[in-house]
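Record pair follows.
FIRST:
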Amino acid sequence: MPRKAPPFALVALAVALLLGWYVVYTQSVVVELRRVAQVQGQMTSRVYTALVDTVPAEGDVLLDLAQLVLLDLAQLLRASGVPQVLVSPDGTVSDTANLPTLRDSAALAAYIKKLDALNDPIEAAGAGSIHYGDSRLVRGLATIPLLQAGAIGLLLLIGLWGLRERGRAEREKVWAGMARESAHQLGTPLSSLSGWLELLEDSEGDNPAVSRAVKQMGQDLSRLDRVAHRFERIGRPPRRDEVELGGMVDRIATYFAARVPKVARKVTVRGVRPDEPLIIAGDGVLLEWVLEVLVKNAIDALGGRDGDVVISAEPLAEGGARVRVADNGPGVPRSDRKKIFEAGFSTKERGWGIGLSLARRIVEENHAGKLLLVDTERGATFDVILKA
């Protein structure tokens, strides 16, 4: 069952976006610094012009050019993008520059406090106090290190995740190869057992016990052959064959019903199927594996007591089908409900914790379905939801 490859394309895209954004931002910083330099040059030009000249005002009144220069400087400072609020000595706001849209005087007062938290206000003799903040350039330079650190941290996490997934993919490749090789090695003894079973069938005579044993041995041999084919499917692309779920439910129920305890304790296994054929697209061999895992777990969960295991299949109104495996045993403790599908987790002393994890992967990755543990008052109920 293939897993998604590490997202190297996603990492490359993230790096490209980060570098592209960084280049664009640094260029905008350069443009902003050039604009600030231009403003400073204009301010210097006005100052030196005021030192060497005066101009006449309207009428006979002469105004020192320095006054006009100061007005020009005020306009240039307003154009610098720095938020400013001039508060007169009586506490009223007499002038503002580069402020965001504020709803009312309460919002303006709150904004002034925010400016004072950034920079101490400057007292202007006779005019009041000036409250100012940071320019767009300063705000950008203050936040960009945080953004860079976050982006680099994200890239490192993606890289570590990619390395982890790559190692896992390599391990799964090895396990898949071993599974297929095991299936290949099982072929020889299975063929030999088939031959011996044919000899037994020819020599069984009229002994009903032998006939019954030969029949059951034939079913076990067929099951071993199916198990070998299951291992061959591991690591290969998923198949999309027509699978009739009703017949599958009957086969699995019949197989386990003949092999559950009936003397010291009585366990019944029965199948419930719809009247009409219930067909979905999928891999019949792997889906049968899933149901056998669920049924075997249900039988084991009864733990030496009498009980019932019911396998049912039914169509869903929105399309697709649901196969349910339910037992009336002790159920799954609530503390274990979130862990039962994790690989390696098992409530059995000698369990490997592989069955349910493998079953969920078959359902989700090979069939785009869902394997769920349903909340019930008694016992354990597992639903396999499959698309049409």
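SECOND:
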Amino acid sequence: MMSRQWLLILALSFAGHALASDTLRCGSQLVSLGDRSSEVLQKCGEPVSRDVLGYKRSANRREEFQVEEWTYGPSNGMYQYLRFEGNRLRQINSKRGN
């Protein structure tokens, strides 16, 4: 019985960690995966840089859409890298600056 409780606590702690990587705090605002680039721009302001990484083909519709990476920071030594695919936020990564 006791080991089941520990397993549940452990599983919940990993679930909370996974959710945290799906959001980014910009001041008092939060941006999340799936947000439009215009929403992110409104909440976080202009990024330090915007890089077009290329184009990606949609599996369903046979269309291409732009893949872009925005960089924010440094904030407390951390850079935030936001990847957009077709104007939707798909990935948030953090990396400590050198």
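COMMENT: Residues 29 and 43 are 6 Å apart (CA to CA).
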